[in-house]
Design goal:
381 residues, alpha+beta, seven-stranded mixed beta sheet, 8 helices, 17 strands, 27% strand, disordered N terminus
Amino acid sequence: MIKKALWMALALVALLPALALGQDQPVLQEQLKQQDVQEIQDLEEQPPLDRRFVQYGVMFYNLENLFDTINNNGVYDKEFSPEGARQWNGTKYWQKQHNMAYTISQMDVKGSPAEGPVIIGVSEIENLSVLQDLVRQPEIKDRRYQIVHHDGPDRRGVDVAVLYNPRFFKVLNVTTQRINKYLPDYPEFRSRDQLTVTGMLAGEKVSVIVNHWPSRLGGEEQSSYLREAAGSMARATIDSLLLDDPNQGIIFMGDLNDDPQNKSCSVALGAKKEIKDCVEPGSCFNPWWNILNRGIGTLGYKGNWNLFDQIIFTEYFLRNYDSKDKPTLTFSRAEVLNRKFLRGSEGDRQGYPLRTFSGGVFLNGYSDHFPTMIYLVKEIK
């Protein structure tokens, strides 16, 4: 009986509600116990077993300064070289690569035809070469992730990119957008370019937009106008994509350096807190708003959590959310991937992301951000 219940839970996991993981281990264990009980109870309400559902994971991860060891960007790149302050040598570089690949390899997507997420947006990567090294790491090389990357104008030389599994996502078009158009009074401002990749996922047209918004350097309020401009750029890109083809789903993701309730997200981009408010074509839902309100974030310090690493999407993925039928890709749940191995276990960083460096000391950690993922479910006839 127990085996049967577990089999049923696995077969229908794509339809089960998610309970995002908490940051404290005792709380985490209690949440998982409650989730197990809820899953068994939900089995009585599931559709017949002759229905087959598959699930796809779409992930975002700030890789925290994935630089090579070569100083090819002057003063901004010297820090990550053998002669720089971090003494960034080959040993540290390959340890970092292993850690990033291991993290990706551990993000299982149950009920998926793919091994792991099919699409991964990444930020804080120096160039194409470091991504080529990443996808060749033993932990993930069998997935044969392909890369979409564009060299942008950021002063530190960091960019965003998309990794994708070509067995499940077929790229049709790639474009980039620059923030300066939305900052006419600051023509010399330099930041990461926005990357837009359009392709086919599960027989449906899906556009993925990735960006790393300007930082809070100088103060959150004083720099807010920069991220509001980035939010306006994202909104304009979504509108342009829908004008070209309204019958597509759009996913926007990135390290936004703002939380869901900030003006850049809630006003400039216009991402809604509740699903019920996403009824107009092209309206966007932000599932992280309520997750952050429960005290779960992707980075933080001394009891204060932020959730900068967001994946926001259009109402296309909500059209069958309340139905047992999932004929098209449908949002199932969102999760902060705060796995135990990614958390610090000592001092004032206990429970927070275990980063690569702290106070100039190499920790051989992962990133100062937790990754995030949304899950899309579809019924296969």
